[in-house]
Amino acid sequence: AFDKTVAKDNSLAVGFFQRGFVHLQLEMYEEALSDYQMAFSHLRKNTFIDYKQLGLRHILYAWEVLYSTAAAQCRLRQWQEARATLEKAVVWRPEGRTAILDMALERVQDCLFLEPMQVPLGEFFRPRKKEVEQLDSKDFLGKPKVISSIIPNDEYFGFEPLRHQKQGFYEPSADALR
């Protein structure tokens, strides 16, 4: 499902983020690391992306993506890279709220694995009913009609390319002459 999601919108950072989490659960560590790196790049240097407009009541923060990237690096036993990634996450974390990252740095120093961040269960893309109802196609224009024509006997309504003229057809009727 995540493969289809990121194939349809390959700029969806949260799609890569969640797929990275699934890859970690499946012990596909290289793929998880790649997905987390893609998620971070799709944040486009923003500290967060709020997905409320899409129906996800979650904000994806850059520091969370970096933390999960470090978790994947730990599984690959890339301890120095994990430490560097966590130090980068400290820069992206809001001021004065680095306790979780400080603990993570200690765990990496001791060569212990980190548990990755994830979107809370039950929060993944559940648009409000009001928004889903608007997805049905609506015919705002109706059936097109020709309201006036320069051809007096023209009964055709609709749109078409220019028609070939028939002899006598375009002459005004006797009623129209009166």
Automatic annotation (TrEMBL):
A molecular function GO annotation: superoxide-generating NADPH oxidase activator activity
Lineage top rank: taxon: Eukaryota
Residues forming coiled coils: none
Signal peptide span: none
Annotated SUPFAM superfamilies: TPR-like
BP GO annotations: superoxide anion generation
Stored InterPro entries: NCF2_NOXA1, TPR-like_helical_dom_sf, TPR_rpt
Protein name in the entry: NOXA1 oxidase
Organism encoding this protein: Columbina picui (Picui ground-dove)
Gene name, Swiss-Prot/TrEMBL: Noxa1
